[in-house]
Amino acid sequence: MRYRRFGRLGWQVSEISYGMWGVGGGLHGWTGATEDDKLAALQRAVDLGCNFFDTAWVYGRGHSEHVLGELVRANPDTRLYVATKVPPKDMRWPSTRQSTLDDVFPPDHIEEYVHKSLDNLGLPKIDLLQLHVWEDAWTEDLGWWRALTGLRDQGVIGGIGISVNRWEPWNGLKAIGTGLVDAVQVIYNIFDQDPEDELFPAAVEHDVAVIARVPFDEGTLTGTLTPESTWPEGDWRNSYFVPENLLASVARAERLRADLPAGLPMPEAALRFVLADPRVATTIPGMRRIDHVERNAAVSDGQELEPDVLAMLRRHRWSRQPTWWSQ
Fold first, then answer.
1. φ, ψ dihedrals at 66, nearest 5°
2. What are phi and psi of 129, to 5 degrees?
3. CA distances, 102 to each of 97, 107, 116, 142 (Å)
4. In Å, how far are 66, 145, 157, 211, 297 from 292, measured between CA atoms?
5. C-alpha span between 73 and 46 (Å, rounded)
6. Nearest-CA neighbor of 26 among 234, 324, 195?
7. Structure pTM?
8. How far apart are CA 214 and CA 100, in angstroms?
9. Where are the beta strands (DSSP E) in 15-75?
């Protein structure tokens, strides 16, 4: 495993890290793996050098956090970085232009959920505390920042971050520009290249760490989806991959597959594309089984994509706008 500097916090984090949404289960979660599968995958990730784990209270309503705390305690001699997120008070993903800070992240709500997360984790400190939705208009009201810096001064959180809404990389530029956040989490993959335009340069200017989430485009870039794909009742993907999205996504993936050189699997191409940008501190694919972990960790080998392959992947850019199903 190779490591990268995590912005001004200076941490050395694994370039392939662990997104724990799929570990949470429950309402609006992901199906397809047992609890034993997930626990084995997490430990295998640690064994292979993964040291940054991104979760959230909403992932299983605390279950994913509980599992992460157990993992940390099971590996006392390994430095594992714990990142979690405060849910919006109105429990709406994403936020909207009409969402106010008082509706979503009032100071008492932030403090309440930080302590809930600490209880779930069973740990004295959260390394990176993120707000799970974001509107740049909120930079004009520093209530969120005062609440978070107060918690930081108490020693219960370390860095402060935001998670940018899907397909809105522009909606984090003001927050980065304030110099008040240490990390920004944004969707970035072969299709979603828009963060390169403004968000990445701003992050570099202010030494803010970039966490690239959804490297596989919620599964499209694994190359396993078909127009007939379905999931068990309650699986979040049923609400995301509505026919309008599923058909368009599969068609895009098939065009990409036709362009890939022999011997380069689509999931590997997806991760190597993300890692090709040095402005990315880490990427957090979801991994629910050991084979997922081993396949993804193997990409952290320092091998770069050939320039012509990288140029080809860039031609598959797909700039999208949020809509009713994009969440």
1. -60, -45
2. -105, 120
3. 13, 8, 20, 11
4. 21, 37, 30, 19, 8
5. 12
6. 234
7. 0.97
8. 27
9. 18-19, 52-54
Tell me what percent of the chain is helix, strand and coil, each rounded to the nearest 5.
Answer: 45, 15, 45
Nearest CA to 288 among 13, 25, 62? 25
- Using N-to-C axis directions, what is the helix angle for 143-154 and 107-121, rounded to 10°? 40
CATH 2.30.30.90, applies to 3-314 = no
Query: Do 162 and 128 touch, CB atoms closer than 8 A?
Result: no
- Domain segments of the chain: what residues? 3-314
Q: What angle do CA 59, 64, 68 make, to 5 degrees?
A: 145
Q: What are the structure tokens assigned to 213, written together?
A: 């989430």
d(CA 277, CA 201): 12
For residue 94, is the peptide bond before it cis, meaning its omega torsion is within 30 degrees of 0?
yes
Are residues 64 and 24 in contact, defined by beta-carbon separation less than 8 angstroms? yes
Tell me how many degrees the CA angle 291-295-298 measures, rounded to the nearest 5. Answer: 140
Contacts of 81 (CB under 8 A, 6+ apart): 6, 11, 13, 51, 52, 53, 127, 128
Contact 85, 20 (CB under 8 A): no
User: Can you tell me the distance from the alpha carbon of 65 to that of 184, in angstroms, rounded to the nearest whole number?
Assistant: 20
Contact 26, 60 (CB under 8 A): yes
How does strand 3-6 pair with strand 11-14? antiparallel
pLDDT tens-digit profile, the chain (327 residues):
999 999 999 999 999 999 999 888 766 667 767 889 999 999 999 999 999 999 999 999 999 999 999 999 999 999 999 999 999 999 999 999 999 999 999 999 999 999 999 999 999 999 999 999 999 999 999 899 999 999 999 999 999 999 999 999 999 999 999 999 999 999 999 999 999 999 999 999 999 999 999 999 999 999 999 999 999 988 889 999 999 999 999 999 999 999 999 999 999 999 999 999 999 999 999 998 999 999 999 999 999 999 999 999 999 999 999 999 999
